[in-house]
Amino acid sequence: MQPSRNNKAWFAVAPVVLVVAFSAIVPLMTVVNYSVQDIFDVNTRIFVGLDWYRETLRDPRFLEALLRQLSFSALVLVLEIPLGIWIARAIPRQGRQTTVFLIILAVPLLIPWNVVGVTWQIFARPDIGLLGAALSGLGVSYNYASSPVDAWVTLLLMDVWHWTSLVALLCFAGLASIPSAYYQAAALDGAKGWRLFRHVELPHLKSVLTIAVLLRAMDSLMIYTEPFVLTGGGPGASTTFLSQYLTTMAVGQFDLGPAAAFSVLYFLLILLLCWIFHASVMRRDA
Fold first, then answer.
1. How much is the mean pLDDT over the chain?
2. What would the mean pLDDT of 87-91 be, rounded to a whole number?
3. Non-local CB neighbours of 181 within 8 Å, separated by 6+ positions
4. Is 248 in contact with 228 (CB distance < 8 Å)?
5. Alpha-carbon distances, residue 188 vs 167, 178, 180, 183, 184 (angstroms)
6. Which of 75, 129, 150, 202 has the most CB atoms around it within 10 Å of its CB?
7. What is the DSSP-derived secondary structure letter of residue 248?
8. Structure pTM?
9. pLDDT tens, 212-256?
10. Which domains does the chain have, with CATH numbers?
């Protein structure tokens, strides 16, 4: 006989389900409802179906912001994942200095996003900022407020400084969980450097790296505060990402219908990209 199932556990889960429903599902359904209507005022609405979705997908400003967003996310992952792994491997596994290194790594993660933007806005100024003044003193023409290339470089440096610590801490936790017997066996086989990383450490880091890539991909796709504070989306629209364009449409222009359709497409994009990555990793490990 099979043991009877105890369904009383569902009563413990029910409050969580209700909280999620009211905090996530209900607002999302509200946005979906707005995305198929043309809203003039509280009492005047016209059903327009998928018109706002078609208009958004044909909007060249949306497509340009989407390309900038995907490019930024790809560059962030290419820079931060290898750098985080390298830092994690360089940290001693034991001793007091390990604690010091971990505390130092955690500091950037504790700084609010708007403070990060203001800090780098001052730090990179070509007149009074340490970075900007140093580059100007070396004869490098640098001004993130007028040059799109300089603005992109500054944004990438800021994001790497802010978030590489997360990747490094996750990778360090994964490396610390590897039994010493694996390293002893690798030493007997003469495996060092790249061979040690490739055949011993990397297989044990796959799960940790999956989490790190998903977290950084989702966060970079939703980035708003740092570029808004640092560059305001400029110069021109060179650093205007999807989140900033959406905010301008919803708050600045108060186009609720198009902004709602934009939000739904934005949400589906992030969900699709994360699902594709997760599915590919799980299929490869199967």
1. 87
2. 92
3. none
4. no
5. 30, 17, 13, 9, 6
6. 150
7. I
8. 0.86
9. 998 899 899 889 999 999 998 889 889 999 999 888 888 877 788
10. 24-58+255-286 (no CATH), 71-242 (1.10.3720.10)
Q: Determine the Cα–Cα distance for residues 182 and 203; give it in Å rounded to an integer.
A: 12
- DSSP bridge partners of 38: 46
Helices (H) and strands (E) in the chain, counts: 14, 2
Residue linked to tokens 């495996």: 191
Q: What percent of the chain has pLDDT over 90?
A: 40
Taking the C-alpha atoms of 142, 145, 150 and 155 in order, what is their torsion angle to the nearest 10 degrees? 130
* Rg over CA atoms, the chain: 24
> Is residue 39 a contact partner of residue 256, using CB atoms and an 8 Å limit?
yes
For residue 175, give the amino acid letter: L
Helix (H) or strand (E) holding 38: strand 37-39
